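Data deposition worksheet. Section B asks for the primary sequence of the deposited chain exactly as it was used as input, without tags or linkers unless they were present during the calculation. Section C holds the resulting structure in token form. Section D is free text for depositor observations; keep each observation to a single sentence. Incomplete worksheets are returned to the depositor.
Section A, Depositor: J.P.
Section B:
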Amino acid sequence: MRKQWIVGVAGAVVAGLLLGACGDPESAPGQAPPSAAAPDPSSTTHRRAATASPGDDVDTGGSGGAGAAKPAPEVLYLGDSLAMENQTVLGDLLKDDLDARYTSAPYSGTTLCDYLEGTADRSLVPPRDKAAALVRRLRPDYVVLQFWGNAWDYTPCMDGVTYGKARAEYFRRYTAAAEQLTDQIANAGGEHRPTIVWVLQGPDPMTPDRVRRVNALYAKQAKASGDLVADAGKAVSPAADRYTWTQYLPCTAYEREHDGYCTQPGRGRTALHHDEDYLHFCLAPTTSKPKPCPVRSPGITRMAREITRAIADARTDGS
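Section C:
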């Protein structure tokens, strides 16, 4: 993996700022986190995974592992800071397991509406990286969307609507954006309409009901439009309680068998979060520029494996 990943500040006093890319406004009312500055469109390339950039010609190397009769899938990955830190691991898994062609274009701090065309003047995503623009250019088979459900009062396209201040309007806006984004992706795909994979999120340690409702919104949209869900959040939740936050979980068989993934083998458990960041899953300390996570991080791997599995199962089922 590459260097460092996303802005943050250590310490419990300012822990709310670590939610800045996609968190809850009640932790730091009226403050935009250090990573909230809109990305300079000229810097988009180095915000993507090194694996591929939109428009690149990539050799697929043959048919995918999900079925010899099917060509390798083209996968586009969009999202916020969670997608930013996950993007390299997910790309590697998709390539290894499905021989996929892969492009990622996440932007930290974004919401669904940031990827809508028609929001260029008040969006953290430049026009060339809007979801529909990328679909027209890349013609992907799958568009993976991973959004925590940014609730801060700084994402321009949300017009100041936050979960903490206007809960009903927050969910109304998110529902409308999910419907619009689905329509824009479908229309951009035309006869080659990509399947959308809505990634369900892990527990919110501050407002558990918020992320539960965001996940329900994603699942409802996927069902309405015939798309998919990947419950990546379940992989980072306790088996007995899907929406209870925890820093540690028992090591899986995969983690015990792969060096560095079971972080506390003597106690049979692994870390999901860095001690100073209870939202993100990268175990490296936060730094000043959003980047893919540079260290082995079990939470990231768990989520990426679930997204990969969902796509593989869909291909097996003929979706």
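Section D:
Residues 167-189 form the longest helix (23 residues).
Residues 1-67 have pLDDT under 50 and may be disordered.
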